[in-house]
Amino acid sequence: MAGQVAYVLGGGSHGPARPGEPLPMGNGRAIALRLAAEGATVVVGDIDLGRAQATVAAQAGPGLAVAVDAADAASCQAAVASALGSFGRLDIVVCNVGVSGREPIKAQSVAEWEYSEAVNLRSHWLTAQAALEPMLARSRGAFVFVGSTAGLLSSRRSLSYEATKAAQLAVMRHIAVRYAARGIRANAVVLGVIDSPLVRREFGEEGAPARAAVVPMGREGRPEEAAAAVAFLASDDAGYVTGQSLIVDGGVSASWPTPS
């Protein structure tokens, strides 16, 4: 990816860190570091500028930290404009930001639904929309959306999360099909249980053995493994891959019956 410019929406991370980890390693931070290690100049967007700056400081090469509130439409657009203004181009855009929900349909609140929609879905299409025109002008660009198996299978836990993650894949497919002939690719990684700060915050460290037990591989995935899948889809090695959802879940979605 030498010479390419990437933007990672949701590239910061805050704890808790894994034991012995100097910097909390979420999926977005791992993705930014992996793209930088592959030679890309990486722009890192996060709601907390300090967290984005920490990611850039840890990168192997140059980068830029930008503050972006994924729940605010204008902020999403401004972050892409800042990246384009600084480097003049975007070759890769990774939409990673997301929030989990807690409410099933009987208890689903309008406030949580709207917040989930804004962060998990609207921010992704607005980011892609803002980056698309310059990519089309160069007949080249790759989008990778970081999704969840909740967009394919129901956990019975959160309607807003499941619905927005399913819709996120529709945005990816729309871009892939509409602009394939103009040099634009769009794909998604669909993640299962990943040992990330978000999962540890939501479900607690004490739940790690139970989370691992439902995975055929017998363990949670690592953010670095999610990043490796993203790097492949963003790279020229995936030049004939578009409109696809690469499932990275340790075999959970292939098992029967599906674990509760």
**What is the CATH architecture term?**
3-Layer(aba) Sandwich
Using the coordinates above, name the CATH class.
Alpha Beta
Element-level helix/strand string: EHEHEHEHEHEHHHE
Tell me the overall shape: globular
CATH topology: Rossmann fold
Distance between the termini: 40 Å
Mean pLDDT across the residues is 94
Q: Helix count?
A: 8
Concise structural overview:
By secondary structure, the chain is α/β, with parallel strands linked by helices. The chain is built from eight helices and seven strands.
Written description of the protein model:
The chain has helices at residues 27-37, 49-58, 73-87, 110-138, 159-179, 197-203, 208-213, 223-234, and strands at residues 5-9, 41-46, 63-67, 92-95, 141-148, 184-191, 245-248. The chain is of the alpha/beta class and 260 residues long. The chain has one domain (5-254): Rossmann fold (3-Layer(aba) Sandwich), CATH 3.40.50. Helix 1 (27-37) packs across helix 8 (223-234). It starts with a strand and ends in a 12-residue tail after the last strand. The model has no long low-confidence stretch (mean pLDDT 94). This is 3-oxoacyl-ACP reductase.
